[in-house]
Amino acid sequence: VKVSKKTKFYISLQQTDGRMYYDTFPFKNYTNKCNIIIVKTKGNQALSTFDSNNIITISSIKMHRENSIYITLDPGEYVIVPSVLNENNKKSKGKFWLNLYINEMYI
User: pTM score, two decimals?
Assistant: First the structure.
């Protein structure tokens, strides 16, 4: 994400709702542990390695249908890393939707 001026972000990571499949709480068959990490980058730099010095924020790890962050980002370039872990099958990646809401218009 390229931010040209100070911008407020609401970032939402959502998973399938286990209630749609008549699963019982806490919906372990459909809900995985998830979190969001925001990393500042330099230019078009890819995240080939993990450098904790560049982390702007990490959401708490939750086993909920939705995990979100509300943050103000200064101008610069960032990578938003959604993480969804299926504990029953560590090789499987969980399905998710990532939504970004901002208070500025970007064209």
Answer: 0.81
Question: CA 77 to CA 55: how far, in whole Å?
Answer: 12
Average pLDDT, the chain: 84
Q: Are 11 and 58 in contact (CB under 8 A)?
A: no
- Residues facing residue 71 across a β-bridge: 9
Q: How far apart are CA 67 and CA 65, in angstroms?
A: 7
Collect all residues with Cβ–Cβ distance below 8 Å to 81 and sequence separation of at least 6. Answer: 36, 37, 38, 39, 47
Q: What is the mean pLDDT of residues 28-43?
A: 85
Residue 9 CA to residue 73 CA, distance in Å, equals: 7
Cβ atoms of 37 and 51 within 8 Å: the answer is no
User: How many CB atoms within 10 Å of residue 9?
Assistant: 19
CA-to-CA distance for 28 and 101, rounded, in angstroms? 28
